[in-house]
Write a structure and sequence with these properties.
By secondary structure, the chain is an alpha+beta fold. The chain has three domains: about 70 residues, Arc Repressor Mutant, subunit A; about 60 residues, Winged helix-like DNA-binding domain superfamily/Winged helix DNA-binding domain (Arc Repressor Mutant, subunit A, Orthogonal Bundle); about 30 residues, no CATH class. The strands form two sheets. A three-stranded antiparallel β-sheet has the order 3-5-4. It is globular and about 60 Å long. The termini are far apart.
Length: about 190
């Protein structure tokens, strides 16, 4: 298949990049042309091949086809195990970002150690996202593009909703019953 020069330039730019690129960053390197059309063409061209062009969090990059990744691993990777506190903290940040430490603690109902946020930032999944205007100007936390890429999400909108979690059996029936009881007590107070 013969590609136009601009599409070839986009392909070369993505191939040579060490990090995923936004369409604007691609255009800076590839020159004038329809970046969206070139990306769509390349995505179609690489579909079903050993490498594929993917978009994660508005950034584009080549990656090994998931079904072939095992062929490239030379050493056994130990899966990163997050503590329950880290998992809960990551979920709170993902669903409520930007969020302060105090807000995370209020949602969890317990204090979090500084190490919990450090582990998530070292993993590249959480980043400081500025400061809230208000007393003490607390630091805010948000997820990163690496978080989206690691969990195979295009954006935060792809996070599972409560119905998805219920269908997967991931919500504890006791938690659900407790939540319903709280809702009923709020209704009675009104």
């Amino acid at each position: 298949m013969i590609r136009d020069e601009f599409t070839r330039a986009v392909e070369a730019t993505l191939f040579a990049s060490t990090e995923p690129l936004t369409p604007d960053e691609i255009a800076l390197h590839a020159g004038d042309g329809d970046v969206s059309a070139a990306l769509n063409s390349l995505t179609d061209d690489y579909a079903g091949r050993g490498i594929e062009l993917v978009e994660r969090g508005g950034r584009w990059h080549f990656q090994t086809a998931p079904d072939l990744a095992h062929l490239l691993r030379r050493t056994r990777e130990e899966p990163r195990r997050l503590s329950r506190a880290a998992t809960e903290t990551l979920a709170i940040i993902a669903y409520h970002e930007p969020v302060s430490r105090a807000e995370i603690e209020a949602i969890r109902g317990v204090q979090i150690s500084k190490g919990t946020l450090d582990v998530l930032m070292e993993a590249g999944w959480v980043r400081p996202a500025g400061r809230r205007e208000g007393p003490g100007r607390p630091l805010l936390y948000a997820t990163t593009a690496e978080f989206l890429a690691h969990f195979g999400l295009g954006s935060r909108r792809d996070l599972p909703g409560i119905d998805d979690l219920k269908a997967a059996g991931l919500l504890d029936p006791l938690d659900e019953a407790f939540s319903q009881l709280q809702l009923e007590s709020v209704d009675e107070d009104d």
